[in-house]
Amino acid sequence: MAVTIAAPILSQTVPDDENPNNQLDLPKDLTIFGQSDPNVRKATAIVNGSIITATDVDQRLALVVAANGGKVPDDEKERLRLQVLRNLIDETLQIQEAAAQKIDISDAEIDQTFQRVAGNFKKSPKEFAKYLTSQGSSETSLKRQIQGEVSWRRVLSRKVEPFINVSEEEVRAIMNRLNAAKGATEYRIGEIFLSATPESMPEAQANANRIIDQLRKGGSFAAYARQFSEASTAAVGGDLGWVRAEQLPEQLATNAQQMSSGQISPPIAVSGGYSIIVLVDKRQVLTADARDAVLSLKQVSLVFPKGLTQEQATPQVESFAKAMAAIQGCGKVAEAAHALGADVVDNDSIKVRDLPAPLQDMMLSLQIGQATRPFGSLSDGVRSLVLCGRDDPQAASGPSFDQIQSQIEEDRVNRRARRYLRDLRRDAVIEYR
After folding, report:
1. Fold for domain 290-391?
2. For residue 352, which of 393, 285, 295, 299 has the smallest C-alpha distance?
């Protein structure tokens, strides 16, 4: 549910000398005093005179929990609470810096973004506000988050972006390297980076293991990255974009090359801390990917009566499999389905990569008019996909000059932004209550 303003960028793990946590005078272990009573607004921290209350923390924490489908254990919530407080401190510093630069974020602009987020949930702003309240958060909390992100982006556009220069030679060099690497494997990676000193590495590893445990139980990688990652890509859910192995630190590259799509790594020790990565996808550089082929399919579905046992269903599945294997072209699908008492659904625009992984391999091996082996369950019934057509993808042309230039600029802006925020933290007067 976090509001993302920035676009995905290519990023490396934060080096030690750029890591804000190595420079901050913030206590490692924060204790939030007072009971979690929404009617009692106790100060948790005072940042340059601005008060962050326990209610502010609770309502922002509720956004994180909601983004993870509510599947966050109580002990994990307490750890998340500390991270949320740190995030609120940063957010307060960003809003204060925008005010110091005489940057005004209008209510209308915040309302417009709030309305867009509500639309993503297929709700009106009023309905969405009620939904947030039902989750233990509030419209005010989300709007403050929007204000913080918009304020910081506006500060960067005034104080950082005008001083970023990318030469034509740099862009051409990258384009030449891409062309030279045609056919090499690229990886779409998500990363959560946890910084640590040599002394705190065991603690960081333990934190990483707890996060991985929650992710494997169904937690949102993007939501955890936004709250915990200390890399510049935290604002975009940890998305590193498409990278080649040689663009990654050696430890991350080694793991990525051994992972399958959707897999989450164990904690990886890197310079300055630990990283957790997820392999979203992989492809060949400037090469057509067969999984981008657009298929025309007919799905034949047979639903089992309620109460049917596995033993009773087996003969029906065998009969279904035999009938589907005997199909000779899509023109015979309706006839075969009628004989089986099955239903037929057409889909003329589905990409191979949008199918579940086991089905992708089956579809790529089929010829036009052939059907997959049956798949399904007692509760969902048995199904088979018949391939009626395939539009193969064209070879990828690669990113344009402008796209590469924008990506380099965004990466440099984010590196400067980390240093900017580090300086704001260093100069801040923060009192914990």
Report:
1. Chitinase A; domain 3 (3.10.50)
2. 295
Task: Locate 291 and state its tokens.
Answer: 């999984």
Q: Report the C-alpha gap between 425 and 364 in whole angstroms.
A: 53
Does 290-391 match 16-286+399-432 at the fold level?
A: yes
pLDDT in tens, 228-262: 888 878 878 899 988 888 888 899 999 999 998 88
pLDDT tens track for 133-173: 999 999 999 999 999 999 999 999 999 999 999 999 999 99
Over residues 199-215, the pLDDT tens digits come to: 999 999 999 999 999 89
Q: Are 320 and 302 in contact (CB under 8 A)?
A: yes
Residue type, 67: A
| CA angle 279–73–225, rounded 5-degree value | 30
Using an 8 Å Cβ cutoff, are 272 and 195 in contact? yes
- Give 354-413 as a DSSP string: GS-HHHHHHHHTPPTT-BPPPEEETTTEEEEEEEEEEEPPPPP----HHHHHHHHHHHHH
User: For the chain, which residues make up each domain, given as ranges?
Assistant: 16-286+399-432, 290-391
> For residue 256, which of 205, 193, 181, 187 has the smallest C-alpha distance?
187
Across the strands, what pairs with 298?
Answer: 346, 386
The three-point CA angle 397-402-407 to 5° equals: 95
pLDDT attached to residue 134: 93
The answer to pTM > 0.70 is no
* Distance between first and last Cα of the chain: 29
In this structure, which topology does domain 16-286+399-432 adopt according to CATH?
Answer: Chitinase A; domain 3 (3.10.50)
Q: Which of 255, 320, 309 is nearest to 282 (CA)?
A: 255
Cβ-Cβ contacts under 8 Å for 329 (sequence gap 6 or more): 368, 369
Q: CA–CA separation, 88 vs 45, rounded Å?
A: 9
| Spans of the chain below 70 pLDDT | 1-43, 395-398
- Eight-class DSSP state of 3: P
Q: Which residue has the tokens 């065991």?
A: 202
At 43 the pLDDT is 60
State the number of CA atoms in the 13 A half-sphere of 181 facing the CB. 18
Contacts of residue 210, defined as CB under 8 A and 6 or more positions apart, other chains included, come to 76, 79
CA distances from 284 to 12, 171, 244, 254, 309 (A): 21, 21, 10, 17, 45
